[in-house]
């Protein structure tokens, strides 16, 4: 903390990078025979790191191009509303990616090296579990979208019209919550299966699709950019599911996922139209009135979701032992 204020952000970043490089350079042996023995493993490791670096670079370039199109063809207020909407939309996905998906990824790697059948069975169970969590998360985000945005953003210079614009963007982006989460899960499987080149092609195709649709739709619809982002997520997940079905059959339950996602998509479209009709009524309420209206609904939604989760995934107690405490509360 003492030296932090003495350095710029670039110096801190470069120091972080050099520290990691120096640490990785401390190889356990200086014997040339050991280096030869591990040379192929090191080559594969650096190849994977390089592929991941390229994929990350393409993703950042896509975001940069998206912002550039927004600033050039849309109003600054709309771009700000889109940034707000994306921040709220990404939060639950990031929480799931950094918690459950990180844990399952480590377990998958371990099982892959020990028993292929155990690995496939575990991956299939986790796919079903994440699909259910994604469906619940997307439903919650759409049903309570007006409440979430009004509570978070209705303050200061953020007017009712700004809330309406942000709500439209938020709901369109939320339609891509399920494919966005499943992309995180499926991309980890591709890394485990060493399908790095195929993954790179998918990301390139997704980026090209998004940018093309952005440039075309931004002149046709006021919501062209969020529509393009959502379509891009569906495109890449659809391609990955087709890839797994032909190359790695049985690793995911394709039919169940597709049917559930389509039913949820149709339901969410109806909820979006309902939210647009009711948003003026919600904006007219005071904050305490909103809490009084939505708190019982949120409690009821969480209760039903937990019951559904426990019924569909009874083995969840083995994955998350602490979930037994929540189960006892639900039963009571």
- Order of H and E elements: HHHHHHHHHHHHHH
Span from first to last CA? Answer: 48 Å
**Percentage of residues assigned to helices:** over 70%
Segments where pLDDT lies below 50 for 5+ residues? 1-7
Structure description:
The structure is a single chain. The chain has 332 residues and is mainly alpha-helical. Helix content is 84%, strand content 0%. The protein contains 14 helices and no strands. Helix 3 crosses helix 8 (177-192) and helix 5 (116-143) runs antiparallel to helix 8 (177-192). It starts with 8 loop residues before the first helix and ends with a helix. Residues 1-7 have low confidence and may be disordered.
In short:
Helices cover about 85% and strands about 0% of the residues. It is an all-alpha fold and about 325 residues long.
């Amino acid at each position: 903390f003492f030296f932090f204020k003495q350095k710029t952000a670039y110096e801190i970043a470069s120091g972080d990078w050099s520290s990691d490089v120096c640490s990785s350079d401390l190889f356990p042996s200086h014997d040339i025979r050991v280096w030869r023995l591990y040379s192929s493993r090191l080559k594969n490791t650096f190849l994977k790191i390089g592929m991941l670096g390229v994929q990350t670079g393409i993703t950042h370039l896509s975001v940069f191009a998206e912002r550039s199109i927004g600033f050039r063809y849309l109003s600054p207020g709309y771009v700000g509303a889109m940034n707000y909407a994306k921040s709220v939309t990404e939060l639950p996905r990031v929480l799931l990616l950094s918690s459950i998906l990180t844990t399952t990824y480590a377990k998958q790697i371990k099982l892959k090296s020990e028993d292929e059948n155990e690995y496939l069975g575990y991956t299939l169970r986790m796919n079903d579990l994440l699909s259910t969590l994604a469906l619940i998360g997307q439903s919650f985000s759409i049903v309570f979208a007006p409440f979430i945005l009004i509570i978070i953003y209705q303050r200061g210079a953020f007017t009712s019209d700004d809330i309406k614009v942000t709500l439209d963007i938020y709901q369109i982006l939320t339609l891509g919550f399920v494919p966005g989460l499943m992309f995180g899960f499926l991309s980890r499987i591709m890394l485990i299966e060493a399908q790095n080149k195929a993954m790179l092609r998918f990301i390139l195709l997704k980026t090209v699709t998004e940018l093309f649709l952005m440039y075309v739709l931004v002149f046709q619809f006021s919501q062209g950019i969020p529509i393009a982002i959502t379509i891009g997520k569906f495109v890449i997940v659809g391609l990955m599911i087709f890839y797994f079905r032909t190359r790695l059959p049985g690793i995911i339950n394709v039919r169940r996922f597709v049917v559930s996602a389509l039913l949820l998509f149709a339901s969410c479209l109806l909820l979006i139209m309902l939210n647009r009709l009711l948003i003026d009524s919600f904006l007219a309420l005071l904050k305490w009135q909103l809490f009084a209206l939505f708190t019982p609904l949120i409690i009821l939604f969480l209760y039903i979701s937990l019951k559904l989760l426990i019924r569909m995934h009874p083995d969840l107690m083995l994955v998350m032992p602490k979930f037994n405490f929540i189960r006892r509360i639900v039963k009571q």
